Amino acid sequence: MPRILGEVLTRRLPYPLMFENKAGGVGVPGTEAVVRATPDGHMLGIGAMSTLAVNPTLLPQLPYDPDRDLTPVAGVFAGAQAVVVHPSVAARTLPDLVTWLRANPGTRYASAGPATTSHLSAELLARRLGLALEHVAYRGSGPAMADLVAGVLPLMVDSAASALPQARAGRVRLLAVTTAQRLPGWPETPTVAETVSPGFEVVGWGGLVAPAATPARLVEAINAAIQVGLRDPVLVDRFAEFGAVPTPGTAGDFAAFVRAETARWGELVRVTRIRLDG
After folding, report:
1. Of 24, 41, 95, 129, which is the most exposed, with the fewest CB atoms less than 10 Å away?
2. What is the pLDDT of residue 34?
3. pLDDT for the residue numbered 221
């Protein structure tokens, strides 16, 4: 989604945007590069739920403090998670699945990895419903979804961007989404909140951050350009293909959202004693 935003903004800015991937380390190397960058507005980072809200609790030796060392610039997107099962599972609805899981305690479920949105979404739902599940962590959504399609595991909560194409192809059965409202492109698919857990809402999200000392005037100028991009109809339509929506707002709005998400997911990581090794 940030790349889609970049494509839209490039048409409006007098200079090009370049993306540099710093993979691995649960996002720490990429985030640290932003922390150490010159605060002149020329380097931004893509911050997500994992890097900004989960890692401070998950990693006690984190070499930076996101709240102290980064400046939130703008939210970019919020994307649905989807509850999907292998077609062999005897459940056509989410209430059916809950009944089946209660009759089969210890059922294994796949996730994209420890402390990912995929994992935390499933853990939160299991705790709310009192389900006893066994977590199987994969190295990314792709391998996890491949094993779900193959029937190696029966269940997964995954990003809509990953799950919806498989559901369209009939390789998995889509039972519910985790957003507060149904997805526009999938109006027949209910939400978790309306079926089994009122008030349940989880979104995978991302936004842009800058080094802490970036001047406020630069943050405001960058945010203003992003707001224009987030209103672009092309961007809105392309986000929808991935089960996501743009999240316009001020830098202060994004900062408040990150603080709330840090408190929410930090508490879940603590009480469930989630670790990176599983």
Report:
1. 24
2. 96
3. 93
What is the reported pLDDT for 200? 96
Q: What is the pLDDT of residue 25?
A: 79
Q: d(Cα 99, Cα 122) in Å, to the nearest integer?
A: 16
Taking Cα atoms as reference points, which of 277, 276, 265, 271 lies closest to residue 121? 265
Angle at alpha carbon of residue 103, lines to 99 and 108, rounded to 5° = 95
Specify which residues 73 forms β-bridges with.
none
Give the closest residue to 176 by CA, choosing from 243, 130, 269: 243
CB within 8 Å of 205: residues ≥ 6 apart? 48, 49, 75, 77, 78, 79, 247, 257, 261
Q: Which residues of the chain have pLDDT under 70?
A: 277-278
pLDDT for 277:
62
Task: Dump pLDDT digits (tens) for 39-61.
Answer: 999 999 999 999 999 999 999 88
